[in-house]
Write a structure and sequence with these properties.
Helix content: over 70%
Number of domains: 1
Radius of gyration: 20 Å
Largest sheet: none
Distance between the termini: 30 Å
Order of helices and strands: HHHHHHHH
Number of strands: 0
């Protein structure tokens, strides 16, 4: 059944997959790249407007829509920037970005320290956290989708768990 689903997926999205592989019509890939560049530039503009306090949690797509409508003639819908650090800075300001970074770093560092004391596979949890951070450099899903948020913060919590605190959930 997995093979059948894979074949159906490949057949259904063959044009997009071929484009991502570097063959075929590159216009889809070029559109994706140009959209990401434009949204990144809008994020930088949002940061310049409210460097300290930001525009508010979840407000960047609205800011992007407003900016695109009033200041550009792009045929583009406002959405999150495909870079979580730009989105965080635009929405939370430097204060919120700093607090997020402190929470992320302190829990990751705690996980690293516990890795030295326990041989319980915690390295895999830390690797998954790093993977989400890397994905966040190119996409907004680790920040904007509830499922990714739950996984990310859950992994951070698991990485900090002391072995004497009981079994993880």
């Amino acid at each position: 059944s997995t093979l059948l689903l894979g074949v159906i997926f490949t057949f259904s999205y063959r044009d997009l997959l071929i484009t991502r592989a570097g063959a075929g019509d590159p216009t889809l890939e070029l559109r994706s790249i140009s959209d990401r560049v434009v949204l990144g530039e809008i994020a930088v503009q949002a940061i310049h407007e409210r460097l300290i306090s930001g525009h508010g949690v979840g407000h960047f797509p609205w800011f992007a829509s407003y900016y695109l409508y009033h200041y550009t003639d792009y045929d583009l819908r406002g959405q999150n920037a495909h870079h979580i650090w730009l989105t965080l800075w635009a929405e939370l300001g430097i204060i919120g970005l700093g607090l997020f970074y402190i929470a992320l770093w302190s829990s990751f560092e705690s996980g690293l320290q516990r890795t030295r004391h326990y041989n319980d596979g915690r390295e895999g949890i830390l690797a998954a956290i790093v993977a989400l951070i890397v994905i966040g450099l190119f996409d907004h899903y680790p920040l904007t989708m509830l499922q990714f948020q739950a996984v990310w913060w859950g992994l951070l919590g698991l990485s900090m768990q002391d072995k004497n605190e009981g079994a993880p959930i």
